[in-house]
């Protein structure tokens, strides 16, 4: 239990609740479960903790209102169901939290709100101001307007991004299982719950046993993605059962429920969190072993001499991923040149940049201040 000592000290947390915990297909929101969740969160607020809630359930609520027998497949149908369901879901939340003297505020986000730096900062300011006012932000993806190009895609990853936005101490994902298991506990009686995960290794990745979802989106794989985002930013994460009575209060009291994901000791600055996780990379730069060592071990900038290959089309100032020859992604950063320029100066010394391009450019492909090692 030593790894969890920081949980009891968490003053600001993000709680994510899945559709299956608060709504049922064909029936819509479950007022009893929402009331229990509200009481649990209200208890944290009385303990002077700030909470932001990321809630799924708009589409399944809209499905019930519209009499749809199965989850819509087309984007327009999903958007229509979300439009109908979001207001009904918020009504239930407002009613449940009002009993505890708490006001709620709806915040709907898209991937574009996260990836655009100015909109990211606007969203951050809004959420922090709501917390300052003592209002509980209830966040969901804006499914009424989101299309594939601007979607976050699932609320596990959205919750991790919200934790980045508000500089949370803890992220709690409430689901219908009580943590990460060594196998599917519904099929394997020998499966055991993993109490603590120190790092998302290949062995941990192999524990994912997702099955096609009914009304929800995401599964254990998206929860591990969220853990990577949170952990790299110094934010602890817990996966726990939302059906466990008083689960939030018990977790914050130090009870060893669920699976605890230990954060990295070095917390990324807000700007670097945005570079690392909020913006989809627009291309990939392959670097040689010497460049990777300089970036990861010595904290250096990326120079054109270490550049081996340029993939994708991107502009200066966009985020790209970095990979070693024959290896996977190990870093991300804001690039100082567009893709065609990098192909021209690939592998050359800094002093030769002007000769190759015909004008004097900056010496670094990616400056270390704009680089994040993942």
Walkthrough of the structure:
It is a single chain. With 374 residues, this protein is of the alpha/beta class. It folds into two domains: 2-268, Acetylglutamate kinase-like (Carbamate kinase); 281-373, Archaeosine Trna-guanine Transglycosylase, Chain: A, domain 4. Helix content is 37%, strand content 18%. It has 14 helices and 15 strands. It has helices at residues 19-22, 31-46, 58-66, 75-98, 111-115, 117-132, 155-165, 202-205, 220-232, 247-252, 270-278, 289-297, 339-345, 353-357; strands at 12-17, 23-24, 28-29, 50-55, 104-109, 136-141, 170-175, 196-197, 236-241, 259-261, 284-287, 307-311, 319-324, 329-334, 371-373. Strands 5-6-4-1-7-9-10-8 form an eight-stranded mixed sheet, with helices on both faces. Strands 12-11-13-14-15 form a five-stranded mixed sheet. A hairpin with a 3-residue loop joins strand 2 and strand 3 (28-29). Helix 2 (31-46) crosses helix 4, helix 3 (58-66) packs across helix 4 (75-98) and helix 7 (155-165) runs parallel beside helix 9 (220-232). The longest helix has 24 residues, at 75-98. The two termini are 27 Å apart.
């Amino acid at each position: 239990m030593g790894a969890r000592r920081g949980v009891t000290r968490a003053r600001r947390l993000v709680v994510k609740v899945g559709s299956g915990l608060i709504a049922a297909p064909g029936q819509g929101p479950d007022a009893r479960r929402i009331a229990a969740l509200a009481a649990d969160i209200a208890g944290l607020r009385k303990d002077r903790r700030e909470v932001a809630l990321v809630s799924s359930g708009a589409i399944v609520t809209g499905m019930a209102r519209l009499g749809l027998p199965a989850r819509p497949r087309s984007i327009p149908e999903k958007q229509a169901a979300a439009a109908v369901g979001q207001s009904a879901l918020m009504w239930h939340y407002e009613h449940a939290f009002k009993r505890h003297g708490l006001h709620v505020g709806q915040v709907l986000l898209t991937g574009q709100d996260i990836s655009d730096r100015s909109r990211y900062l606007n969203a951050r300011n809004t959420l922090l101001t709501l917390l300052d006012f003592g209002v509980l932000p209830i966040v969901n993806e804006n499914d009424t307007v989101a299309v594939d190009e601007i979607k976050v895609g699932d609320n596990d990853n959205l919750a991790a991004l919200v934790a980045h936005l508000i500089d949370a101490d803890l992220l709690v994902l409430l689901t219908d299982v009580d943590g990460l298991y060594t196998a599917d506990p519904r099929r394997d009686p020998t499966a055991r719950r993993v109490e603590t995960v120190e790092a998302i290794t290949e062995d941990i990745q192999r524990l994912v046993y997702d099955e096609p979802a009914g009304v929800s989106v995401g599964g254990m794989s998206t929860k591990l993605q969220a853990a990577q985002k949170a952990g790299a930013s110094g934010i602890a994460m817990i996966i726990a059962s939302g059906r466990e009575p008083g689960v939030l209060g018990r977790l914050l009291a130090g009870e060893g429920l669920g699976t605890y994901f230990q954060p990295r000791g070095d917390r990324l600055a807000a700007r670097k969190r945005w570079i690392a996780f909020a913006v989809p990379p627009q291309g990939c730069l392959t670097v040689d072993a010497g460049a990777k060592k300089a970036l990861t071990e010595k904290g250096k900038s990326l120079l054109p001499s270490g550049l081996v290959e340029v993939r994708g089309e991107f502009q200066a100032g966009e985020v790209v991923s970095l990979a070693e020859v024959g290896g996977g992604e190990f870093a991300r950063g804001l690039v100082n040149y567009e893709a065609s320029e990098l192909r021209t100066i690939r592998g050359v010394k800094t002093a030769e940049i002007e000769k190759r391009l015909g004008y004097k450019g900056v010496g670094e492909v990616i400056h270390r201040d704009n680089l994040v090692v993942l």
